């Protein structure tokens, strides 16, 4: 398979997956009891008969569910119309966009930190296999793995606010709400410490485990022995021959982990009342705000799928075996 | 006694002999068994029921009372005993986690065996489905599913909905694992021979393939259990549990919603979390050790220290 | 043998510590010498310790190995060096082509770069000079130098092996260890690689230690032969003496089943097959019998063989063998 075919296949697969997500979203939308128009605008909202009629037409509700309604809905979604949030009385798309940046900030920080530290620790633990450092980091990773994200958040929240006087929630202090974030950086940073720490601790263990097993595999390959026979020191072998080979699977894993990362954001933002998509998702859930819930699901799922595809493309440029083929 | 039973007993005792010496595995087994025990004998561990409100002499509920003679873990925001909720919660958490885990295991193994054994379009379809499920973020999907199913006013309990949703979404890794194992077993001689003498598919699967992949399935199930328990706690924390039958996750949901943190009621929010870590860590340790026993990776690597040069007095040869 | 030896291995003992079992004595009192320009053949059944011997000399064995004895390279005892000092000898003086070298090249690094790395690592030349040298080396082993920019997976099996040889020659080492360099290659390519080794030796005058279980290859390539059995040297001598006047019963058996010295090896008879024609199996290293290691399989054994281990004795000029019958 040539690289072009490979990428094309990945692309088609991503399209297929997005299509599946759209179908799920559409079907869930339709199985809700009651009048679908009500599902769109909310149960308790009073609207005029003409308004109802126009919505009916807009969503094709007077036509059969498939294909007419389905494609009509797809068309709406494609045009960025995800309906109106029942609880916030705002277009869903608008609400989502206003929270996206905050979530990206949290996820980005947490992932960068956990990848950097996790990869470094995993590299070292695998190299020094069976030493107390290795056993220690392995134990840490297993415990981190077995710890529910939200509970770690709760503990850090309790500890951080009691002993370190860190803020217990939000993204900035009340007096700074509404100001552009870059004008209140120190305040923002103080609010970011605990959520970021939670995310870092949890995912660090994961990346450490992956890197450890990856480097263990690489270090038992023949070419490592060749490098050693050439007269290289351990550090030189690790750096020149170990790292790149061991990092390759990590790229794929980081992409596959994005789904988990989104879960983490939902828990962490909920615990820390961090004003992002995750908290929004939870709010929609609690308030049974279906248009919002489904819009958020759509956005999260499509982002993860697209990110996965990008990681695949990145991989093909990193691994010469795939690149040249 | 027939021969295969003896063989089974022998391999079990062999297994136990090796397993017993593994400290991680034993720790995991003890953690899991202890939790199961607590769940089974819960009523014997507390004089109260989870709903009993503990009152002072004046008849007022003891809200957020710290650990004391009334209860080893104090009371919650409504004056109910936390210890009692914890041991009864074990029943809910373990039931939901284990049932969901077993469903995932069953579905995954079945599909994995069918796909691996029969191959063809069935296999193709399965692989594509798992590929798709792998990239859809699982928590949002589950939240949307559970929320929608709830809204549909079906005649099933909230816990059943949880069990089904978790169980029916987490079979993919098992299916892939079982499939690849079945593929490699299928290539082996005795399967070809069995087929040559006209053995039926069902017979071959039952007699030749199932016994070989059973250990793998067991190890994988234990790992799945820990995931299922964690997921259950997460969904319950986000408010999708059954408030009338609180699991550990539901307890944490209450604790968080009712300001146990700002009230400093650590006895309310620490124990349920520790219990979750207890069980899921137990399963992970156990599962990892079982897996390691199946395909041992004893091999060291090339940078693992050097050969030791032992000095000798011997003269030149 | 003469003072001019390049590499002198004296009483090399290697054991592997195996958990739950005793130590596995993989090598016992192995001694031999390698002279400049010479090709020494190391032969014996699979598992008799050939690879272990090479790896012991290079001190590349894993940490469960215990090695003792002396290995002199030009009068420097390699076993007396620190790990750091030892690194300066690896590849610079003693280079190795590994057994089954199919994966001995880093899959994500260009082949030329891997060769260049060996040169610059030992500080032999500047980067640009090294670049030139890589081209020369590749041409020397018959690979167009443009292909240095390719990755190992773009090479055929034979090309990889030749690239490994080019890499081994990168620092102009004094001794080249070649551990079964032709197994896993098809017959045509085998012949090419052997010819290449022969050619290189003629041109560069380096010493080669050739590990093989193929007696045909030995007859064709080697000057001196060390026959190993169960981790010990059974017989040691010049190639024509070993082939025409073998003293050790094991060597005799080996040669008996070997068809014709003047014929090149018949590719259809794998030498494994030939060796297997001696009934029985080599001893387990964790349960070494007290007597001669070959005793259970020996067709001429005597009473003493069960209890006493025969020492290596002079049985002719430059000819040693370890057997009680050779008093
Ligand atoms: N790292 C090791 N640990 C334990 N035993 C080993 C190790 N490496 C080699 N051996 C054992 O040493 C013996 C000699 O092996 P080897 O030198 O590879 O033989 P040959 O190269 O002659 O085929 C074998 O029995 C092998 O199992
Ligand atoms: S010492 Fe004895 S057993 Fe060993 S080779 Fe000689 S005759 Fe055979
Ligand atoms: Mg060998």
Summarize the structure.
The complex is a heterotrimer of chains A (325), B (317) and C (327). Chain B has 317 residues and is mainly alpha-helical.
Provide a descriptive summary of the structure in words.
- The complex is a heterotrimer of chains A (325), B (317) and C (327).
- Chain A has 325 residues and is mainly alpha-helical.
- Chain A is 77% helix and 0% strand.
- Chain A has two domains: 3-78, no CATH class; 92-324, MetI-like (MetI-like fold), CATH 1.10.3720.
- Chain A has helices at residues 3-31, 36-41, 49-58, 65-78, 92-127, 132-146, 149-163, 185-219, 222-229, 234-271, 277-286, 290-318, 320-324.
- Chain A is globular and about 85 Å long.
- The N and C termini of chain A lie close together (7 Å).
- Chain B starts with a helix and ends in a 7-residue tail after the last strand.
- The model of chain B has no long low-confidence stretch (mean pLDDT 87).
- Chain B is globular, with a radius of gyration of 25 Å.
- Chain B is built from eleven helices and one strand.
- The model of chain C is unreliable at 261-265 (pLDDT under 50).
- In chain C, the strands form two sheets. Chain C has an eight-stranded mixed β-sheet with strand order 6-7-8-3-9-10-12-11, sandwiched between helices.
- Chains in contact: A-B, A-C, B-C.
- At the A-B interface, helix 1, helix 6, helix 7, helix 9 and helix 10 of A face helix 4, helix 5, helix 9, helix 10 and helix 11 of B.
- Strand 1 (308-310) of chain B pairs parallel with strand 4 (65-73) of chain C, so a sheet runs across the interface.
- The structure holds adenosine-5'-diphosphate, iron/sulfur cluster and magnesium ion (MG).
Termini of chain C, distance in Å?
Answer: 21 Å
> What's the tally of helices of chain C?
10
Tally of helical runs of chain B: 11
Low-confidence stretches of chain C: 261-265
Range of helix content of chain C: 25-40%
| CATH architectural designation of chain B | Orthogonal Bundle
Structural class, from helix and strand content of chain B? mainly alpha
Residues in β-strands, percent of chain B: under 5%
CATH topology of chain B: MetI-like fold
Biggest β-sheet of chain C: count, sense, barrel?
8 strands, mixed
Mean pLDDT of chain B: 87
Shape designation of chain C:
globular
Following the backbone from N to C, one meets helices and strands of chain C in this order, namely EEEHEEHEHHHEHEHEEHHHEE
Q: How much of the polypeptide of chain C forms β-strand, as a percent range? A: 15-25%
Largest interface, C-beta closer than 8 angstroms, per-chain residues = A-B, 67 and 53 residues
Write down how many β-strands of chain B occur, each being a DSSP E stretch of 2 or more residues. 1
Total beta strand runs of chain C:
12
Distinct small molecules bound, one entry per kind: adenosine-5'-diphosphate, iron/sulfur cluster, magnesium ion
